[in-house]
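Submission sheet (multi-component)
Chains listed below:
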Amino acid sequence: MKAHVIEHNKLRPHHHAGRRVSARWLRYAIIIAALLATLAPVYWMITISLKSEVDQFSVPPRWFLFSPTIAHYSDAFVERSFGQYLLTSMIVAVSSTLCAMVLGTLCAYALARLSLPRRLSTRLSLWILSTRMFPPIVTALPLFLMMRDMRLLNTRASLIIVYTAFNLPFVVWMMRGFFQEIPRDLEEAARVDGDSRLGALVRVVLPLVAPGLAATAIFCLIISWNELLFALILTQTDAAMTLPVGIAGRVTQYEIKWGVMSAAGVVAMTPILLFALAVQRYLVRGLSLGAVKG
Amino acid sequence: MRYERALPYILAAPAVIVLAALSIYPLLYAVRVSFQTGVGQNARWTLQNFTRLAGDNFFLAALAHTLVYATVALTFEFLLGLGLALVLNSEIRGRSLFRATLLVPLMLPPVVVGVVWRLMLNPNFGAINGTLKSLGLPTESLTWTASPKLAFLSVIAVDVWQWTPFVFLVLLAGLQAIPQEPYEAARIDGSSAWQTFRHITLPLLKPAILIALLLRTMDLLRVFDQIFILTEGGPGFATETISLYIYRAAFRFGNFGYAVAMSFVLLIVTNIISLAYIRLLQRQEAT
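Outcome: structure written.
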């Protein structure tokens, strides 16, 4: 890829040296502007979470110079219930990711490798994908009514069930792609050596798709962690609500505590950004449900 | 041998059952609710929920907001994303750092995006007006989320901020997969930069463009989270999108049958638009 690009640049027609230099500066100017526009708002929230109220509302705004305080963090996570929401978010995200990974990976293996009739396999894959295409509000309403009838409203279990189903199509499509990239010969070799189908899956195939498994699991964690609509509808008590619902509830109140809200926001975003860095290589693929193998 | 033949079904079954239980069953349930008024013993079969749609001006306004929101945001995200991808599609120092930075808005929980922009856009002590004021610029008319017109532009701008990186990443992946031979041929023919872009880059990039547009469109039509945090559909009804209106009908007014009927309209609109894209994609792949 690199070689291509370099060659491409060399092939550019004979510009004047000056024009080429200014084009390069323009390019860097665009990049820096884009970086600033991307990061400044997030940085601003971080500073608000660390500022005393006097500094928060000062004009002109203090971008750099202020005396930091962690009062808002202890206010949010010790005095108020954000610690509880954080715990719920973690439990729900991890449990639903585990369930979706186990069910989805097995299904993906069957679709990618085992001898299902071809048409059935395609049909099934497309149907699984289509369940993911529904606007969430469409499924959220009946799910609310079902959970109400089953007396599961305001429980973590309801969210774990819903997020498992929500992530399943994603896992199936991602893992199906990863399985299809493994050469069949490796599996056949293991089977000749006397492994059963499942033995070959566990001992040969899964280790080969391990990076894909990890990336897919991290995406599931991020999706569950970030989700608002279902959580908002299914959990309204302090004991069951997730971090996004907790933040949403505070934001829409009449009097907003900017510091508390920002502190909760920083805590909600930090693990996600670390995870996102870890799956950078698979990012485009994950975001496009495997459609773009970037 | 028999076990061997059953194995794929055994492996696929749990996932299929879970999905069916949580997608097909709720859908059937929803269909029933939408054709009824009243609950329990008092439930009556009726078409009322659907006939009411056509006369509900708020519903029509929310639908219009959603379509305008999606069209305007998509246009900006596409143009900016394409521009950035073209700029970055060459050896530049710090390119991987730039890519990593662009992940930030993409991965941010939508709730946090809402919080971030509430802090930026607050008319009195937000960072934007504060900075403008300290530069001596008048900010009285820049009330952002507090005035109907600016509020609509604000929520669109926030979407563009968050999702342009996605279009950029998909298009950059597409650009990097284009082979070099056509460019060499074009150079020998003496094509201008614009001709090369118009006749080589754009056609070869079309599949990636269509995928980016399809995925963005589906997301834009269902937008809920950021707007819920930023404006709650207000001021008044200015930024109320279809998902917000459905949410309100169901959970503020307890009108589930009507809310479900509206959600079917959203589903149909989304499906028609997505199918159009998919047709285009298939035609692209056939040629």
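Remark: Residues 2-69 of chain A form one domain.
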